[in-house]
Every structure is written in C-alpha cells, then in structure tokens.
Amino acid sequence: MTLAIIVHGGAKTISEDKVAANKAGCLAAVEAGWAVLTKGGTAAEAVEAAIRVLEADQTFNASLGATLNSEGEVELDAAIMEGATLGWGAVAAVQGVRHPISVARKIMDEKPRFLVARSAERFAAENGLEMCKKEDLIADEQWHEWKEEQEVLDRPNTVGCVALDANGILAAGTSTGGTTGQLAGRVGDSAVIGSGLYADGKLGACSTTGDGESIIPVVLAKTAIDFLNGDRHPDEAAQMAINTLKSKVKGEAGCILLDHQGRVGWAYNSQDMACGYMTTGQDKPAVFTKKEASTAPVLV
Ligand code: ASP
Questions:
Q1: What's the number of domains the chain is made of?
Q2: pLDDT tens figures, 67-109
Q3: Which of 66, 104, 283, 285 is the most exposed place for a label (fewest CB within 10 A)?
Q4: At 31, phi and psi to the nearest 5?
Q5: If you measure from the C-alpha of residue 176 to the centroid of ligand 1, how many angstroms do you get, rounded to a whole number?
Q6: What is the CATH number of the domain that holds 254?
Q7: CA 177 to ligand 1 center in whole angstroms
C-alpha cells in the first residue's frame, strides 16, 4: 500500500536568503503530514496537519505572516476536499482565525459548506477552533512592506497539500492570504473547489497557487486532474495544466498533483516554487525551491 504527501509553499520568486526557510518550512509540513499517514490517519487529517505547519510559519502567505490587503489587514481563504466522498469545506475573507484550514475541515460535514467573513469567524469560534486578534497574524515584515509600499519581488505565497492515505483515499487543501494589497473582500481561487484544489475518487488530487483571476477561468486543479486520464504521469499532467493556463489566460501559477498510485507531479511558470514530498519507498522527504533541482533531491 502506497502512502504519499506533497506540499507547496507557493509559486513565487524566492530570493537566495529565503531558500533555506522555504525548504525548512516545506520539510516540517511534509513530516507533520507523513506522521499522520504512517499512523493510519486519513488523507484529510494529513493535509490539515501539514497545512497547519505552513500556516504557522511566516515564511508563507497563509495565516501568520500573510500578505496584507488594501486596508493593511490579514484576510484569509482556505479549503479542503476529500476524493472518496467528494466532501469539501471552504472559508474566505476570514480574520482572527489561526488555522483557516482547520475551519475548512470542520465545516466539511456541515451545510452550508462555504462561509465567508463574519459567518466563518462565528462558526470557528462556536466550534472551539483557535481564535486570535486579527492583528496577531500580521508579521513585522509584511507590515513594513505594506506601510512603505515597497516593490518587493519575493513576497510570501499560498500554501497547499495533497495526500494519499492507506485506504487509497486522496485529499487536497489550500490556504492563502490572497494577493499583496488586494482590495479588502477580494477572494481568489484558493478556496474555490475545482480551481484552488480538487480531489476525486479515481484519478488524483491537486492544489494550486498563483494568480487567482487566471486560475479560476481554467479551473486549474480539475484541469490538471483530468489530464491524468489514460494513466498519464502527474508531472506531465501538471505541466499540461500550466500550459493550458498560459495559452488561454496568461498569468503565473503552479500546481502539485498526486495520482491514485501515489505518483508525484508538480509544475509552475513563476520563477520558483517551494515544494516538498514524501512517498512510500523514499528514505527521506525531498524539498525544492526550483523544478530543475528535482532530479537531484535537495535533502535538508
Ligand atoms: N491564488 C491566490 C489568490 O489568488 C494567491 C497565490 O496563490 O499566490 O488569492
């Protein structure tokens, strides 16, 4: 029985001084998710565990350290989906919630399943999930950049995870602070099923990152999964999905993909993308900030 987990830390430009932090964050997330899988946990539990690690790490644009919107505030979107039941949960434009991915997972069994802003915050509080002051999620670096309106190239970016558990079930999750300086209330693709993430019962599961306004019209996560048809390798399917986006709508994006056999794929057209994975048969997790390096895994 094959277990597999892959995480991303966003399609972005990663400056030399942030390579180590990106790799360390991805490694810690893979390890957290892998620990869940090897103890017999479900794919959805592993995805939640891995994304919680990334949300707590200010290297990434999710929860703590998320990029700030037009009002200098952190506003978060997250979603999770499980392939066997097609169960899903999503929240958007939430504030003062430490782990939006956990709120998304909690809401999976509820109706309605997609809550925004105050309704999502109320749901989180009523269900005993970790709340904080909305200011507590603002990292110094993000605050200074916002205040000085610096043109910074290596901004943090969205996080995501896809996992395959011992029962052969796939799950995917994505969590983000959106785009830098985005209009308060703007919602991108990350919490949108089919675009920011998708998991199905047969082919595979995918989490995406990049320009939400370009990802949504090409339904990027579902498109990548559909390319798995005919037993295509996930690496090729991921690249075909990014090519589709480039040719149809332009924009920058990346995606991570697992198929039902636990084969790993990822592709992006940004300068870099932080990524890490572990599958049955590997002795250690592999982590990268660039695809070219993936033929010779960089182990930390
Ligand atoms: N996809 C996210 C959004 O548009 C941002 C990102 O992944 O960088 O909100």
A1: 1
A2: 899 999 999 999 999 999 999 999 999 999 999 999 999 999 8
A3: 283
A4: -65, -40
A5: 7
A6: 3.60.20.30
A7: 8
